[in-house]
Write a structure and sequence with these properties.
mainly alpha
């Protein structure tokens, strides 16, 4: 009798879980493990660091050489402007190439789920899918910001002795340096999120990367040759134009205000991500 009572009590007692679930935190942890264990991710991150440091060192040398060449010509020196202030823009100058590397990494974070068939296991474990997309977006954004900031600071340290050879000084606390550092990191994060969204929408790594390159590099170049007012106005809302407005202390003629440029960049990340959430909930894997 006592055994029957014990069994009945155990059946009525609520079961305790082992802590497993499909929360955002667990999804984020899973995505971080995927990212950190894939060799291509580590290679692309290290490549970003090398590229930014290399371009920064080259830029410091070029500016130093240019200063020496124009030192004896006051007219040319006046036309070149304040080289000491330009020295504060050298460290993040590699961002224009780094954005492509990190953007491609953003593409692979999502597109690889479909090309390798991993999406079936991922969405079977987390059927709602929203935590997966949110976790990937959080990972991509944080990774982009950290890699860009670290790469910029390493580049800044490396170019200090190069600049000192030409009597140039880099001021880490200057507004120019700080704007380039933090807005540059935010810009790369936007491009990476855009790449991630393209990877989810197209489900093809090559196609998504080509589309990203077209948006970031090709369209601005094409619009420069189109003098129509429509294309001139449209060019202001491209990601690179908005970024260039943010890193300048004064708004150029016809350019977006700083808050408009920031809003534009934000929309380049938010709208594709919303489209990703809408589509990924309705597509089969």
């Amino acid at each position: 009798m006592s055994t029957d009572i014990q069994q009945e009590t155990l059946q009525q007692r609520p079961r305790t879980t082992s802590g497993k679930g499909t929360s955002f935190g667990r999804a984020l942890n899973s995505e971080f493990r995927k990212f950190s264990t894939v060799p291509s991710s580590v290679i692309l991150v290290l490549t970003t660091l090398v590229v930014m440091v290399g371009i920064g060192a080259l830029g410091a040398w070029v500016i130093g050489q240019t200063q020496d060449m124009v030192a004896n010509d006051p007219n040319v020196a006046a036309a070149m402007g304040d080289q000491s202030e330009m020295a504060n823009t050298i460290a993040p100058s590699g961002i224009m190439l780094a954005q492509l590397i990190i953007g491609s990494l953003g593409v692979l974070v999502m597109s690889s789920e479909f090309t390798t068939g991993m999406a079936r296991a991922t969405f079977a474990a987390i059927p709602k899918r929203f935590p997966v997309v949110l976790a990937k977006a959080t990972l991509v954004a944080l990774m982009s910001i950290v890699v860009t900031v670290v790469s910029t600071l390493v580049s800044a340290v490396v170019i200090i002795p190069i600049l000192s050879n030409y009597s140039l000084h880099q001021d880490f606390a200057s507004e120019t340096f700080q704007r380039n550092l933090w807005f540059g990191a935010a810009y790369v994060a936007v491009i990476a999120l855009l790449g991630m969204a393209l990877g989810a929408l197209l489900r093809n790594s090559a196609g998504a990367i080509v589309t990203l390159v077209a948006i970031v590099f090709i369209l601005p170049t094409v619009f420069q040759f189109l003098t129509n007012d429509f294309f001139t106005n449209l060019k202001r809302f491209l990601p690179d134009s908005a970024y260039n407005n943010l890193i300048t202390t004064t708004v150029p003629d016809g350019g977006l205000e700083h808050w408009q440029a920031g809003l534009t960049l934000g929309l380049w990340a938010v709208i594709p991500l919303l489209a990703t959430l809408f589509v990924i909930q309705r597509r089969d894997v």
